[in-house]
TrEMBL record:
It comes from Paenibacillus chondroitinus. Belongs to the AHA1 family. This is SRPBCC domain-containing protein. Residues 26-134 form the Activator of Hsp90 ATPase homologue 1/2-like C-terminal domain.
């Protein structure tokens, strides 16, 4: 059974518009990104001292697919600080009946992870909320970590 976290949605926009929005990581995930997010290579994400990670963009197929590999990761709220390390984040774009499907899968983010409920909830918010509205309305809601953290009661100790 595939236990990796996955979610999907459909939009009216073209695969190319979807691809461009996914690669505008500052527009939907976090404005605290260091490095380029629309070409092969690495970028870093940090949210206060709660989460930081280094991600390599390993695949960019225009209008079809984006793949990220998590090189390094740190969470301050779980025992295993490196839970995301060596996992892959995959965005698949498919045209279906005049709409474009966006399928997000975090390969390696599984229910046995301590961060699973917070992380899957966060991805759900960022992918189905922020990324979707960046694609459909031209504006996402990056930097929602604070709201998600407070909802889970994980404020800094």
């Amino acid at each position: 059974m595939n236990q990796n976290y996955t979610t999907a949605f459909n939009v009216e926009q073209s695969p190319d518009e979807v691809f461009a929005a996914i690669n505008n990581v500052r527009g939907w995930w976090s404005e605290d990104i260091e490095g380029k997010t629309d070409e092969l290579g690495e970028f870093k994400h940090q949210y206060q001292d709660i989460h930081r990670c280094t991600i390599a963009i390993t695949e960019l197929i225009p209008g079809k697919k984006v793949v990220w590999h998590v090189i390094d990761n740190y969470f301050n709220f779980v025992v295993d600080k490196s839970e995301w390390k060596d996992t892959d984040i995959i965005f698949e774009i498919t045209e279906k009946d005049g709409t474009t499907e966006v399928r997000f899968t975090h390969v390696g983010l599984v229910p046995s992870y301590e961060c699973y409920s917070v992380c899957s909830d966060s991805w759900g918010t960022y992918i189905n909320g922020s990324l979707r509205s960046l694609i459909t309305e031209g504006k996402g809601q990056p930097n929602q970590s604070e709201r998600i953290v407070n909802k889970h009661g994980l404020e800094n100790s």
